[in-house]
Amino acid sequence: MTQFFKVSGGGNDFLALIEPERPPDQAEIVAWCARGLSMGADGVFVLRRAGAAIGMDYWNSDGRPAALCVNGTRCAARLAFELGWARDEVTVETGAGPLRARRSGPTAVALELPGPASIPRRVAAELPAGAVEGWAVTVGVPHFVVLWKPSLADCPVAVLGAALRRHPQFAPAGTNVDFVRFPARDRLEIRSFERGVEAETLACGSGVLAATAVGLQLSLVRLPVAALTQGGFELVVAGECVGSAPSRWTLAGDARVLGSLDLGAEASLPAPAPPRWTD
Asked: Which fold has domain 2-106+257-267?
C-alpha cells in the first residue's frame, strides 16, 4: 500500500506523498493521476521536512517535473499545517526557490511570490483559422494569456488551448494557455489549459498571476484583484507595484485537505490504450 493525501487548491487537485522512501517514477504518476481508473489528480507532489522549512517536489499528471505549481504549493503549506510541521507560516522550498506561505482563513492559504522577471510581451500565434493574439509571460512557468471578449462560457478551451499549448511560437518548452476577461478593475475571469495535464483544469494559480500581470500592463486591473476560476472559487492577488509591474505579490484562496488514501497495487496499473471503434 502507498499512502497519499488528496488535496485541492481552488479545484486544482493533487496527490501528496509524505516523506516516501523513494520518489515516484513517471509511470506511477501517470497511473495515479488517471481519472476514472485510479484516484485522479492534476499532479503529484512529495512533501518532506527541511529544518524549519518544508521541501516540495512536484510533477504534472504526465509524470514530468515542473519547477513551480502555485496552487500545489499552497496545498503543500496547508498540509504542513495540518500535519503539525508548522503553525501558521512556513517556507516552502520549491524548484523555483523558497516561497513563504501563511494561513489566510480557516481553509485558505496565501503564498508570497516575487514579481515576474520580465513584463508580458505581445505574441501573435498563427493557426489555420487565423492568428490568435495574446501576451506571453513567465510566472515560474510560461503562460500565454489570451484576452477573450465574449463570455468564457462559450470559449473552446479544449480545442484552442491544445492548439496553442504546443505552438512553434512557444517551442521547445510549450506553454500554459489562459483565456481571460476583465469585467472590472478589481475582478478578472479565467479558464486555463495546463501543459503537463494537457487539459483544462478547474484553477491555475500561476495562470491567475499571469493574467494579473497582463491586466496591470494594460491598465485593466488594479491590486487587489479577485479572479473567478472554472471551479467556482475566487483566488485573490494582492501586492505592490513598481509602475505596472508587481515587485512582490501574494495569491490567496481555498486550499483544502480532502483526506488520506491508501492505494493498492492496482492503482498503479497503466491505463488501456484508447479504443479503436469499428465503422
From this structure: Diaminopimelate Epimerase; Chain A, domain 1 (3.10.310)
DSSP string across 55-81: EEEEEETTS-B-S--HHHHHHHHHHHH
DSSP symbols for 239-268: EEEETTEEEEEEEEEE-EEEEEEEE-GGGG
Phi, psi of 173, deg, nearest 5? -75, -25
Distance, first Cα to last Cα, the chain: 42
2-106+257-267 and 121-254: same fold?
A: yes
What fold, for 121-254? Diaminopimelate Epimerase; Chain A, domain 1 (3.10.310)
Catalytic site residue 69? yes
Q: Amino acid letter at 45? A: F
Give per-residue pLDDT as tens, 103-129: 999 999 999 999 888 899 999 999 998
| pLDDT of amino acid 272 | 80
Catalytic residue among 69, 75, 155, 241: 69
What is the signed CA dihedral for 23, 13, 159, 230, rounded to 10 degrees? Answer: -160
Q: How far apart are CA 148 and CA 169, in angstroms?
A: 20
Q: What global pTM score does this model have?
A: 0.93
The reported pLDDT for the residue numbered 1 is: 58
- Among 33, 75, 155, 204, which one carries the catalytic annotation? 204
The pLDDT value recorded for residue 135 is 98
Q: Please indicate whether residue 204 is annotated as part of the active site.
A: yes
pLDDT of residue 142: 95
pLDDT at residue 244 above 80?
A: no
12 vs 8: CA distance, rounded Å: 5
Domains of the chain, by residue range, sit at 2-106+257-267, 121-254
